[in-house]
Amino acid sequence: MTDRVSHRPSTLPSTFERLGASASRVPRLVAGVVYAAAFLNIISGLFHSFRSRFSWVSDVLPGAVTNAASALVVVAGILLLLLANALRRRKHRAWRAAVVLAALSLVLNGLRLHVALTLVSALLLYLLVRYRREFYAVGDPTTRWRALWAAVLLFVTSTAIGVMLVAVYDREVIGGWPGLWPTLQHVWLGMVGIEGDLVVRSRFDDYLAAVLLGLGLMTLLVPVFMALRAPRPQPDLSPEDDARLRSLLERSPDSLGYFNLRRDKSIIWSDSGKAAIAYRVVGGVMLASGDPIGDPEAWPGAIANFLDEAERHAWTPAVLGCSERAGTAWTRATDFAALELGDEAVVDVASFSLEGRAMRNVRQMVGRVRRAGYETDVVRVRDLAPSERFQLLADAAAWRGSETERGFSMALGRVADDLDPDAVVVIATCDGVVRGFLQFVPWGRDGISLDVMRRDRGAEAGVNELLIVSALEACRDLGVSRVSLNFAAFRTIFERGERLGAGPITRFMRSVLVFASRWFQLESLYRFNAKFQPAWVSRFLVYPGGSLPRVALASLEAEAFLTWPKMRILGVTDHA
Fold it and tell me: What parts of the sequence cross the membrane (predicted)?
């Protein structure tokens, strides 16, 4: 069972219009009204007692009814507050919950004769019903069950903790232990910030009220957050998609194309099946990786399907690491903005040589390492013996240590795997011991792209230069004419900032990047790549206007520069 809305109106703007400046602002308006109603309900429930307003009800109903009404107003306010952001993102599940809460708020505020809040609730309910077709975004069906299970467990646990507190400190309750039912009522009211009927000594009253309110907020906030947060599907590249992508990659002009065979990416195809886009959803951002794969004439169809999927789930579409050609295709199909991220270093094998003054540093380092007894071997993965594969895997893990494995758009995420028989491995040994290795993945029919670079920290300085030079020297025998090396982020800023006459803004930006290079390999990668006299190929980030902070954060998370712990609540894991 899913949250798909089958009656999407034909009057809604098209995909491209909706993602542009002309998109409907109704969800934002409704979200604003929801925020206002939520705050007013919470303030009214907590700071204006219902008992005086419900005096006519108290004559015929028990006092617990008035307490329950106050509690319901506060709960409705808190839930509306949590729903506002999901409504802004057009979530249909949030709309359904908001309609119920708005109706409840309307009834409660009408009973207490609160004119202002009654009008606000009526306006909210009208807007929700009037513009119901604006809230069509599909939710993740798995999140509702995780959220429901978490809510049940948290409610039971919080109630038990509250009852235990009253039982353990029963001497602080005037009259002693009041019994289970009065205690449960007091605990449940306290969980929404309402004072119950138990009379507690002042020294314990504040402590108990704070604990119960904290438990109540946790019981409300965590499940609602889990139910309404942007779903993050668990990507899984199917064998069928893998096979279809490999047939397209043989003719792919994109050096990053092979990295889309990562197992943690999903694929969306054009209707013709001639082009595809690999992506992952991170923090509500549907993040495409590199260029679309396949026939460039079929790219618009894949882009349209990609945007439709993003719209259906209310995800923010974006592209990380695309070429200028692909970036142009995206910006033509939409009104997205493009930001240059940096440059990829590409070496032409035919023109590469260690001769000349520009290559003096590399030539000297390679010569010194070779004189120290280092040797290299260049081999396809399919030609590695099982023992050699096992050794490479062990070395890669040992040399990485506790560092987070990074990569999304420019890394495959596996080493010497049977899935990649045409990958090229360059191994450096000294006295029969592996001291470093590189792995290159195929790039079309005549290229390879650097994927993994690992070295023993005790190895001679210059072993990486030796490995790259050995790879370039072996390329002619491998039938390879072009080699993509590392990506240099913000290369142009480094280059322009150190030129004579660079402006103050450029110099400042360079100084910021140099400072950041203490934690991230920015300047060092640029200077290392520049040693091999490559051609620089720009890569871009493409994103909807106004969404750059969110897209940038998602990109950093996807590349594992930012990592978040997984939320685990009483056995319920929320995959962040």
Answer: 29-48, 68-87, 99-127, 147-169, 207-228
Task: Give the end-to-end CA distance of the chain in Å, rounded to a whole number.
Answer: 23
What is the bridge-based pairing of β-strands 447-455 and 482-489? parallel
Which residue, among 366, 477, 146, 413, has the nearest Cα to 262 in the 3D structure?
Answer: 413
pLDDT digits 0-9 by tens, 41-73:
777 765 544 444 444 444 444 444 455 555 566
Question: Checking DSSP bridges between strand 316-322 and strand 293-294, what pairing results, if any?
Answer: unpaired
What is the value of pTM for the model shown? 0.72
Tens of pLDDT, residue by residue over 409-433, are 888 989 999 999 999 999 999 998 9
pLDDT in tens, 337-347: 999 998 999 99
What is the Cα–Cα distance from 210 to 218, expressed in whole angstroms?
Answer: 12
420 Cβ neighbours under 8 A, 6+ residues apart:
261, 381, 412, 414, 441
Q: Rounded to an integer, what distance in angstroms lies between the CA atom of residue 576 and that of residue 574?
A: 6
**CB 542: neighbour CB atoms within 10 A?**
23
- Given CA atoms 490, 495, 498, 504 in this order, what sign does their dihedral have? negative
Does residue 330 contact residue 319 with C-beta atoms inside 8 Å?
Answer: yes
Domains belonging to the chain, first-starting first, are 15-228 (no CATH), 239-335+546-574 (no CATH), 345-536 (3.40.630.30)
Helix 324-333 × helix 299-313 angle, to 10°: 60
Which residue would you say has higher pLDDT here, 52 or 318? Answer: 318
Q: What is the mean pLDDT of residues 194-205?
A: 71
Cα separation of 23 and 98, whole Å?
22
The closest alpha carbon to 279, from 295, 293, 298, 260, belongs to: 260
Torsions phi, psi for 264 (to 5 deg): -100, 30
Residue matched to tokens 């990047």: 513
